[in-house]
């Protein structure tokens, strides 16, 4: 049996952007990726939505070294999503991309010892031009100032509207201060709000709690659902599901019931990390069967590493628009051997599970 106590929960916290640079090896949500391998970065082609073709938005990265492998002394997983609501469909992962990066302790970019100065360190922009909007490769250059670089025409337009128009001067290099401004500038249509991702071990209710009678538990659960349906931290869709659950025969989706019970004490968790563990499913529908999780290109099977919870949606400021991207949970499966990929970024696998419709 999997030890259910070795789950790390992730929570978001507002932090100064400069603490989330690559050389701090952060786990973070939103803003721009803090690339681990600083070169070569993934090609923008690899980060196009397979549905609409637009550049994906950076959702989060998790720093998760692989103790067993000296090749993965540093290791991070990056998750990207298309913000276009049209590309978001139920139980379908095509608007997502997950990339793995890893480096040995002695590598091409970072000192093998922790940095003495906390304020300065290597960055991906030393090695190639980056898009000032999204932080991906920026091979397109503003024709007027020859200074600002972009991944795509769309992001150039976004920057123009958000203020580049005012600072762009023919042939005058952008002053350092302007660059700083553009680094922390927010592009609400292209980036998600930035947070640090803090993890702490999950503490399960104590044994006496577990010994409660089934009847008591059911009663508690009904109370919980009644109270939470109204003031839930879950996104609207989840809250609606809860309401439906509260009035319907709740013996139907045991999986959803277990989900609610498990997150009850830490409702703001946005991530559950448990390498080789078991995801906490939100529904009994669309759970992967044998063969649904493809092997890594090295031939090794992929195993579960972490899942992104629906609570994260409330921090992304997307659901104010009504129709927006959505998920029940996003489960990340990675190469069980974290195979050697040099300085490259390697695609891993994401399984998207949505809440079931009114508990079929
Ligand atoms: Zn798309
Ligand atoms: Zn861009
Ligand atoms: Zn310009
Ligand atoms: Zn592999």
From TrEMBL:
Question: Does Coiled coil count among this protein's keywords?
Answer: no
The organism's superkingdom is given as: Eukaryota
Q: Which GO terms describe its cellular component?
A: cytoplasm; nucleus
Is the keyword Zinc in the record? yes
Record's InterPro entries?
PDCD2_C, Znf_MYND
The MYND-type domain is annotated at: 131-168
Could you tell me which Gene3D superfamilies the record lists for this protein?
6.10.140.2220
Query: What GO molecular function annotations does the UniProt record carry, in alphabetical order?
Result: zinc ion binding
By its UniProt entry, which PANTHER family does this protein fall under?
Answer: PCDC2 PROGRAMMED CELL DEATH PROTEIN 2 -RELATED (PTHR12298), PROGRAMMED CELL DEATH PROTEIN 2 (PTHR12298:SF4)
> Could you identify this protein by its name?
TSR4
What organism is recorded for this protein?
A: Mytilus coruscus
């Amino acid at each position: 049996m999997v030890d259910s106590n070795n789950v790390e929960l992730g929570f978001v916290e507002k932090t100064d952007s400069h603490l989330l640079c690559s050389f701090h090896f952060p786990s973070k949500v939103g803003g721009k990726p803090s690339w681990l391998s600083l070169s070569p970065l993934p090609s923008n082609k690899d980060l196009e939505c397979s549905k609409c073709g637009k550049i994906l938005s950076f959702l989060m990265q998790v720093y998760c070294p692989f103790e067993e492998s000296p090749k993965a002394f540093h290791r991070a997983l990056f998750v990207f999503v298309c913000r276009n609501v049209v590309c978001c469909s139920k139980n379908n992962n095509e608007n997502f991309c997950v990339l793995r990066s890893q480096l040995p302790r002695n590598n091409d970019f970072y000192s093998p010892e922790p940095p003495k100065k906390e304020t300065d360190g290597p960055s991906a922009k030393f090695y190639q031009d980056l898009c000032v909007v999204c932080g991906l490769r920026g091979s397109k250059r503003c024709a007027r100032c020859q200074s600002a670089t972009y991944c795509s025409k769309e992001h150039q337009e976004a920057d123009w509207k958000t203020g580049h128009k005012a600072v762009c001067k023919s042939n005058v290099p952008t002053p350092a201060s302007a660059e700083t401004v553009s680094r922390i500038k927010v592009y609400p249509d292209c980036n998600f709000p930035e947070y640090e991702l803090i993890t702490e071990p999950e503490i399960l209710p104590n044994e006496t709690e577990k010994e409660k009678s089934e009847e008591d538990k059911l009663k508690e659960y009904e109370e919980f659902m009644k109270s939470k349906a109204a003031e839930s931290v879950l996104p609207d869709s989840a809250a609606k599901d809860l309401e439906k659950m509260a009035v319907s025969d709740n013996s139907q989706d045991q999986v959803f019931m277990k989900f609610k019970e498990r997150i009850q004490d830490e409702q703001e968790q946005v991530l559950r990390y448990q390498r080789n563990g078991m995801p906490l499913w939100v529904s009994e529908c669309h759970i992967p069967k044998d063969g649904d999780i493809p092997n890594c290109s090295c031939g090794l099977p992929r195993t579960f590493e972490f899942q992104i919870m629906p609570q994260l949606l409330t921090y992304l400021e997307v659901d104010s628009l009504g129709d927006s991207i959505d998920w029940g949970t996003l489960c990340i499966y990675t190469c069980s051997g974290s195979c050697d990929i040099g300085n490259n970024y390697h695609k891993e696998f994401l399984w998207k599970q949505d809440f079931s419709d009114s508990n079929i």
